[in-house]
Amino acid sequence: MLEIREGVVEYLEIDGQKELKGTVRISGAKNSALPDMAAAVLTDEPVVLENLPYLLDVSTMRSLLEHIGFDIQELSEGVFSLRLKDISSLEAPYELVSRMRASILVLGPMLTRFGYAKVALPGGCSIGTRPVDLHLKALKQMGADITVEHGFIYAKAPYGLKGVHVRFNKKTVTGTENIMMAAVLADGETVIENAAMEPEVVDLANMLKKMGANIKGEGTDRIIIKGVKKLSGVKHRIIPDRIEAGTFAVLSALFGGSIVLENYPVRYLDYVHKVFNKIGIDVVPISENQVAVRSSQKLKPVYIQTKEYPYFPTDLQAQFMTMLSVVEGRSRITENIFENRFMHVPELKRLGADITVRGKDAFIKGVEKLTGAQVKATDLRASAAMVIAGLIAEGKTRIYDIYHLDRGYENIDAKLRLLGASVKRGFEEISG
């Protein structure tokens, strides 16, 4: 199991501008794995998840479920059996939740199945305010008694939850998933309006339906759930990670298209491909599940706005900014989702990028090259941007705080070495 080492800071050192070529396989989606694991709370029968990635966030969710009382076994590589044997706790403690805000996903399942949950207020990336008040408001509508004190959410529903009409005033992926899981065992019909439409939400709905849930409308902004009495076990394969796919697609485009991407989720990245086309990059199918990403012409600057699915994902903003930093001309990115998601800009500037931030907008003037320096990963996706930057930069780049990277990218340094990159991990003792 992956874990954070105490007393040391881990770094990744990259010797840039090495030729990259070969095949890389896209792993299972982190943002599907976590809610799919949380959904195992809804049944006492075994839940078998295939294509589960080896990630720090997945390890944290595993520790949380084992704390609750799960027996979790690895059946084969990437295949895990999860079964709730004996309930030892209906609490998600701070030391686990503080590492990963997706821990909030156990709130809905525990409350609807057992009538009680105590969940620490979540932590995770420092990329801006991601309040859980939308989750709590909806659960209160469903009849839950909820109080927040001493850093914990206390939720009670001793007589079960009731189906209601929920309308989110802002799209929320984890909110949609939490309420969908709460609703599958609630009494009556729940309608979620302004629901998130992400593929990971659809994946969770598909898994729940295989368990016996009655769900319609997933993939649209209106999801209808009719509660059932009981859910059964299931075997479910987690979808490929579209953000990892987009990250490697950027890398392939910057290295002449000589990287073949396997297990690539073409249908989840349609809008991203349109942005690639505007820049001068083509995504070319090679086989049923393989693509090559190539620049068909001199790369051109572009304007990008982040927005909820099916539009351009905020989780690819930092990676595209890194690419645009070496594209001749002036590009602009507007970040509409998180207010603090330009924290990677100062780090890119340390490598020689010319970027100016004004409010929600980043103005990028392409430079001839980046040069190696010491930088830090400020959040999960910024860490991937730093890796891309280090690979295209002249000289050595050392990236600190790479635990962020391990939260969402499976064996990324090993994958990069197989492509020919010069990448190594190291540790420094924390003094004082």
Explain how this protein is built.
By secondary structure, this protein is α/β, with parallel strands linked by helices. A hairpin with a 2-residue loop joins strand 4 (70-76) and strand 5. It starts with 7 loop residues before the first strand and ends with a strand. It is 30% helix and 27% strand. The protein has helices spanning 30-38, 56-68, 94-97, 107-114, 133-141, 173-183, 199-210, 242-254, 270-279, 317-324, 345-350, 380-392, 403-408, 412-418; strands spanning 8-15, 22-25, 47-50, 70-76, 79-84, 91-92, 116-120, 145-149, 152-156, 165-167, 189-193, 214-216, 222-226, 234-237, 259-262, 281-287, 290-295, 303-305, 330-334, 354-358, 361-365, 374-376, 396-400, 422-429. The protein has a 4-stranded mixed sheet. A 4-stranded mixed sheet has the order 2-15-17-16. A 4-stranded mixed sheet has the order 4-5-3-14, covered by helices on one side.
